[in-house]
C-alpha cells in the first residue's frame, strides 16, 4: 500500500511539473512575447477543442449513457457561462477592461486581469483532477499500467500547458504569476489521485462524471473567449498563422491518440 501511494503521488507530481513548460517564455523579451503570444493562444484554442472532441467527449460517451453524458456537457457549458458572468460583474464594475488583442495582432497584457484567465485556471484544475484520478486508477491495476498512463498524460499535457500559459499571459497575468498559478492548478491532480486511492471505485465514479463537465468547459472557453479574440485581427497573414496554430493544436491531440 505504501508503494502504491509513493508511485502514484510521485507520478502525479512529475505530471504537475509539466506546468513549468512556460519557463521558456521567461527568456523572451516582453515586446517579442506580446507579438507571438497570439500564436500560442491560437494553439490553445485548437488544443482545447481537440482535447474536448477527440479525448473527453468519446471517453464520456464510452463510459456514460449518451443522454446523461450530453446533458453534463451542456451543463459544463452553462456553468462556465455563469462563471464568466460572475467574473465580469465582479471585475468590471467600474474597472478598465482586461488584456486583449489589438488589430495589428499584439496582445495587451498590462491592464486589468481578464476573466478568461480565471476560467482557464478553473477548467484546467478540473482537467488536472481527472488526470490525477486516472493515474491513480492505473496504478491500482498495476505499476506498469500506472507508468504507461503517466507517460501518456505527460505527452498530453505539454501542448495544453503551453496554451494555458499563453492564455494567462493574454489575460493580463505577469509571466511569473502565470507560471505560479498554472503550477497550483496542476497540483489539483494530487487531490484527484488521493480521492481515488482513498475511496477506490467511489472516487473513480466521481471523476467519471467530471469528464463531460470538463469537455463542456473547454468547448465554451475555446468558442466563447479565445476564438472571438482571434477575430480582432483581420490581417491575412495573421489569420493564416492563427489557423495553422489552431490546426497544430488539434493535430497534437490526434497524435497523442497513437501514444496512449
Automatic annotation (TrEMBL):
Its main location: membrane. One of its GO terms (biological process) is intracellular zinc ion homeostasis. The chain crosses the membrane at residues 6-24, 36-58, 64-83, 179-200, 206-227, 239-259. PANTHER family: ZINC TRANSPORTER SLC39A7 HISTIDINE-RICH MEMBRANE PROTEIN KE4, ZINC TRANSPORTER ZIP13. Keywords: Membrane, Transmembrane, Transmembrane helix. This is ZIP family metal transporter. The lineage of its organism: Bacteria, Candidatus Lloydiibacteriota. It comes from the Bacteria. It is a multi-pass membrane protein. It is found in: Membrane. GO terms for cellular component: membrane. GO terms for molecular function: zinc ion transmembrane transporter activity. Pfam families: Zip.
Amino acid at each position: 500500500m505504501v508503494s502504491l501511494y509513493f508511485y502514484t503521488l510521485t507520478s502525479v507530481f512529475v505530471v504537475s511539473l509539466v506546468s513549468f513548460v512556460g519557463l521558456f517564455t521567461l527568456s523572451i523579451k516582453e515586446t517579442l512575447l506580446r507579438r507571438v503570444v497570439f500564436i500560442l493562444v491560437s494553439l490553445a484554442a485548437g488544443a482545447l477543442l481537440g482535447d474536448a472532441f477527440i479525448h473527453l467527449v468519446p471517453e464520456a460517451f464510452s463510459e456514460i449513457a449518451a443522454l446523461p453524458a450530453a446533458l453534463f456537457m451542456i451543463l459544463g457549458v452553462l456553468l462556465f457561462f455563469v462563471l464568466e458572468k460572475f467574473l465580469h460583474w465582479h471585475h468590471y464594475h467600474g474597472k478598465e477592461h482586461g488584456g486583449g488583442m489589438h488589430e495589428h495582432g499584439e496582445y495587451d497584457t498590462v491592464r486589468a486581469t481578464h476573466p478568461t484567465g480565471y476560467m482557464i485556471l478553473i477548467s484546467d484544475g478540473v482537467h488536472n483532477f481527472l488526470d490525477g484520478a486516472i493515474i491513480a486508477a492505473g496504478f491500482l491495476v498495476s505499476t506498469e499500467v500506472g507508468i504507461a498512463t503517466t507517460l501518456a498524460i505527460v505527452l498530453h499535457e505539454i501542448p495544453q500547458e503551453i496554451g494555458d500559459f499563453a492564455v494567462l499571459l493574454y489575460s493580463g497575468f505577469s509571466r511569473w504569476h502565470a507560471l505560479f498559478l498554472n503550477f497550483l492548478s496542476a497540483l489539483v491532480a494530487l487531490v484527484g489521485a488521493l480521492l481515488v486511492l482513498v475511496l477506490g471505485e467511489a472516487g473513480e465514479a466521481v471523476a467519471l462524471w467530471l469528464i463531460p463537465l470538463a469537455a463542456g468547459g473547454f468547448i465554451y472557453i475555446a468558442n466563447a473567449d479565445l476564438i472571438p479574440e482571434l477575430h480582432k485581427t483581420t490581417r491575412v497573414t495573421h489569420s493564416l498563422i492563427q489557423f495553422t496554430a489552431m490546426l497544430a493544436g488539434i493535430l497534437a491531440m490526434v497524435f497523442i491518440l497513437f501514444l496512449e
